[in-house]
């Protein structure tokens, strides 16, 4: 068995004022706990906690709470350490730095963990100098506010036309990824005047979104903590309901700066983008990692979906666009084959027309996926297309979410 090379320790970065410099360790034995405490004590860390457990304990706990800046997990005795780290990745926030410790001096394991994006692997007994270096670099980064470079995924949902069900798709996709996929989701309604995301989730719109756009210098982690409204334990919403007049100018840079901060704290930032390629909406659609264009089954819907997709392609923005054929089978709508011909290609996703359960859910202010199983199954397919994996998780997620 090959010995491990000298560790290349990476820094940790705070992304929210309440988590600045937070260190959380899960260790399986008293000796390792003692080693960590002996190094941490002289450093006077203000937010340092050790819990008895292993990587599975960490995954269970972090499914219910915020992630720290630096997470230390114990892989000792785990026969499938890579799979265990994959499971952990599904609940950790993008900005967390992960250090693994274990009882195997194995260069193959070290390389596999590094390839997955783990910052470092230390084997027991823990060398004091390596632990000191790890804590020193982590706290130095926390003080300086360096960026980790890891960000969540920006998903823009927009309509080919108005009134085609864009908000319903955005709300239920967000709810599915949060409730079933157990990802941490931010849902942002960029229609500050007539948006209905908050109504769909029985939330009262606040002023946080407007303030973030008009006073971008005020936006930080603490601001977001107060502005975001929880719709569930893994889904937070940012929405407004401003007067119809005067229209609020959305500065593109202010909007993108806000979204970048959200991306540092959430696995997915899902945007309900108003119809029309104007102002900040165009910038958001250009910068999104994935665009979902929602179209109903009308001829005009297929036409405008094609025009919108062609516009993105002509702009040379090399980011994927999914076309969602919504309300398929509605009275007077094109048949799926006819819609595809008008679109010039097969729609990426198809959702049947189910007005009754969807209207009932919207009226009650709850996601329709909780009331209509067939619709939930369709949203599940969309979620898989968005994440590139099933809700249960598939190999490769850790690398996408944690690798620098």
UniProtKB/TrEMBL annotation:
<dbReference type="InterPro" id="IPR027417">
    <property type="entry name" value="P-loop_NTPase"/>
</dbReference>
<dbReference type="GO" id="GO:0051782">
    <property type="term" value="P:negative regulation of cell division"/>
</dbReference>
<dbReference type="GO" id="GO:0005829">
    <property type="term" value="C:cytosol"/>
</dbReference>
<feature type="domain" description="AAA">
    <location>
        <begin position="153"/>
        <end position="289"/>
    </location>
</feature>
<dbReference type="Pfam" id="PF13614">
    <property type="entry name" value="AAA_31"/>
</dbReference>
<keyword id="KW-0547">Nucleotide-binding</keyword>
<keyword id="KW-0067">ATP-binding</keyword>
<dbReference type="GO" id="GO:0005524">
    <property type="term" value="F:ATP binding"/>
</dbReference>
<dbReference type="GO" id="GO:0009898">
    <property type="term" value="C:cytoplasmic side of plasma membrane"/>
</dbReference>
<dbReference type="InterPro" id="IPR025669">
    <property type="entry name" value="AAA_dom"/>
</dbReference>
<dbReference type="InterPro" id="IPR011006">
    <property type="entry name" value="CheY-like_superfamily"/>
</dbReference>
<protein>
    <submittedName>
        <fullName>Fimbriae assembly protein</fullName>
    </submittedName>
</protein>
<dbReference type="InterPro" id="IPR050625">
    <property type="entry name" value="ParA/MinD_ATPase"/>
</dbReference>
<dbReference type="GO" id="GO:0016887">
    <property type="term" value="F:ATP hydrolysis activity"/>
</dbReference>
